[in-house]
Amino acid sequence: xxxxxxxxxxxxxxxxxxxxxxxxxxYIDGVISDLEVLTGIVDAINQQAGITNCLDVKIETVVKVIxxxxxxxxxxALKAIESFIRIVExxxxxQLTEEQAESLIDAAKPIQDAIQSIANGVxxxxxxxxxxxxxxxx
Length: 138
Fold this sequence. Notes:
Layout: H1 2-17, H2 22-44, H3 49-66, H4 74-91, H5 98-119
Helix pairs in contact: 1-2, 1-3, 2-3, 2-5, 3-4, 4-5
């Protein structure tokens, strides 16, 4: 059942990318790649289904919100990735080892930073106002 969730997540990412605006897509492509890496880390953690399913739901929420047609909805994606990080911090040393938690947080922080930049209208690569693609700092 868990492998089915990962497959569905991959399909959702692919379908959503086809629907977003080109400029917004340019900025979130890196975020989507990072989210796929984060999903892989979660998949590699062979824990109780409850914690990995919870983390998957948070990642899926980020993907759904950041790839929707509303480019101004990125704050909701930011809240979802912050919630992911809080859950991992709370479960560190409990359902997750400290090493697993550190790995997940290390993978999630750049996503959080990039979404924060996009939500604030700042290019995640060069820090200036949103650039016209391609950003020279990318």
